[in-house]
Protein: DUF4250 domain-containing protein
Organism: Shewanella sairae
Amino acid sequence: MNIDKLDTLSAEVLVGIANEHLRLNCKDQQALFYDLDIDSKLLEQKLAASGFEYDPVCNQYKTR
């Protein structure tokens, strides 16, 4: 899956997409980046700016 215009999606929509993929398709964060075919730095920056960070124990993004 390729998310075009990632910068136009709100962080809330983006975290929902990411967490759904993590729950259903991806065993970890690296698999998510590959599955969505997105730049890891861009995703991390966008989510961090809105208070989300990846929790490897739960394999999902959560609010800080």
In short: The CA atoms of residues 26 and 32 lie 6 Å apart. The first strand starts at residue 52 and ends at 55. The mean pLDDT is 90.
